Amino acid sequence: MASYDLIVLGAGIVGAACAERAAGEGLRVAVVEPGPVGGGATAAAMGHLVAMDDDPAELALSRLSLRLWERFADLPLAEFSRCGTLWVAREPRELDGVAAKVARLAAAGIEARPVGADELYALEPYLTPGLCGGMLVAGEAVVYPPRVAQHLLQLACERQAQAFLGRRAVALTAHGARLDDGSELRGPVLVATGCALPELLPQLPMRSRKGHLVITERYPGRIRHQLLELGYADSAHGDADSSVAFNVQPRPTGQILIGSSREFGVEERAVSPPMLRRMLERAFAFVPMLRELQALRVWTGFRPCTPDGLPYIGAFAPRPHTWVAAGHEGLGVTTALGTAQLLVEQLLGRAPAIDPAPYAPTRMLR
Amino acid sequence: MSAAPVRLDIDGVAVEVPAGASVAAAVALAAPHFRRSRSGQPRAPLCGMGVCFECRVRIDGVEHQRSCLVPAREGMRVACDD
């Protein structure tokens, strides 16, 4: 029976990052992934590396992770593009919070500044007239997440990690994990299976939150920054059954990604035309030019959501040698590398870079 | 009694086509190809009915227009090779 220092279940961006970090520490790592590497929420995601400042623990993890992402700034396959994030305001009252946001980000070492209406149109000429301003975070970037997940797994394998691709973990055992071919891997287990977490750890609540994305043909130069509405967090963190928010991204190819939608309680993978329409109308309200463009593809994905919106990172106390890294909702790409650092520091009994308490899976055990 | 022909500009070349002709017809008269693929291969209409997307050109500044579906209009400026 093969034995390992860490058995990572799931090779999305979070699992792959944890495998790479653990293998880099000299641990003997196994990775089990039934589907394509980075093929779940990772492949459906926009790949925007963004500091969300509404929650201190979310910001601390984002900040840690964003610094680690700089490793990949010059890696062609990552398609790392430092387009910056431009938050835009439709209503003057949306600008009220900008000074506080700038201060919170500055305290985390992230440079942001308010943008007046005139500069807004100099930065993005196609924005609809009448917007009042916004906030620019010039250093933020976008990446292509599934390729990075594959790359992280490859780096892990170069450090002797063993990948069990096409295999599914069907049960946690007293000494490790059992796979769908009946074999058993021995060693500490890290469950990094995102939305599928309850299949192995039903004690930890997890909901799937459906999203839609559209990608257009190539229109180089039309959109220059990742654009979001300042009200985005209200949608992202709200508990409404369904919501849409303006979120548009320029890809390095000149293509434009258009989001975003959020739906709880929908398991149907298919594109929902009414939801798609709502999402697009929201985007057209901010950038009317998008109406004229040719869309190439629409897809959906599911974000893994915990009840309090923070991921599970750390030991799953009720079971010995069981660890969790899952539930990152819409920030899994941004926070994957920080998650891996925090998880491996705890695994090795080192002092963690940031306070791990807010992410402790045990907070949800009743 | 036929309508007057229309004149378009295709990559700087003046082209005249009968009223009612498509932009694709005008491009075929003037340009060696309609566009190049990402790998640099020349492309031209295949289906002629808006399904294959091979005849995309820029018309009056808007990219990726299927020229086989767009009627030629007086004064249109068409750019191939986007």
UniProtKB/TrEMBL annotation, chain B:
<dbReference type="Pfam" id="PF13510">
    <property type="entry name" value="Fer2_4"/>
</dbReference>
<dbReference type="InterPro" id="IPR042204">
    <property type="entry name" value="2Fe-2S-bd_N"/>
</dbReference>
<dbReference type="InterPro" id="IPR036010">
    <property type="entry name" value="2Fe-2S_ferredoxin-like_sf"/>
</dbReference>
<protein>
    <submittedName>
        <fullName>Ferredoxin</fullName>
    </submittedName>
</protein>
<dbReference type="GO" id="GO:0051536">
    <property type="term" value="F:iron-sulfur cluster binding"/>
</dbReference>
